[in-house]
Amino acid sequence: xxxxxxxxxxxxxxxxxxxxxxxxxxxxxxxxxxxxxxxxxxxxxxxxxxxxxxxxxxxxxxxxxxxxxxxxxxxxxxxxxxxxxxxxxxxxxxxxxxxxxxxxxxxxxxxxxxxxxxxxxxxxxxxxxxxxxxxxxxxxxxxxxxxxxxxxxxxxxxxxxxxxxxxxxxxxxxxxxxxxxxxxxxxxxxxxxxxxxxxxxxxxxxxxxxxxxxxxxxxxxxxxxxxxxx
Length: 230
Known about the structure:
By secondary structure, this protein is an alpha+beta fold. About 30% of the residues lie in helices and about 20% in strands. The protein has helices spanning about 1-35, 40-45, 60-70, 85-95, 165-170, and strands spanning about 105-110, 110-115, 125-130, 130-135, 145-150, 175-180, 195-200, 205-210, 215-225. A hairpin with a 6-residue loop joins strand 2 (about 110-115) and strand 3 (about 125-130). The chain is globular and about 40 Å long.
């Protein structure tokens, strides 16, 4: 009788430990599933005036951008950093001072078009495939003032990533969350009706995400608050 009682007590203790271990594992698993992963690329690049998939940042030299798309500039990496030697860099910097900005409406290679947006040519747009650079015609030396990108950026997919996804993975409170006005989408030939604009400020820079009427991402833009003044 004592042996049977002892075996029963031992079995009870073993099952108790197994049950506790199972509860602990379940708790850990539950916490892991509920954790949120934020997009660290957004503050990392936006605070420098950059969109991660755009070669040049806000403030980049207009001449350098033109040289690059003309194929005349020095070799640079995907973030606009020079890949040439120190001597070649010095030579490139010296030559950039003598390179003039193409005349308005000039066509240059790689589909880079220079033109004014209004009758006074106050703002100049340089267009290359899915990237649009803007600067002030009266003061090109201040550099690129506004960048608009219509391809994937920060890991978000054009035409696929949603408003909820973008807002839910950026660890910051939006500076603005509204229905975009036509002036907000000046970079488009035909602004989309009922588009939503989600904006975040990082230091001197404003980063914007634009979503269509189906809440799908279609443009990412960035500009310097102190330079871009409409």
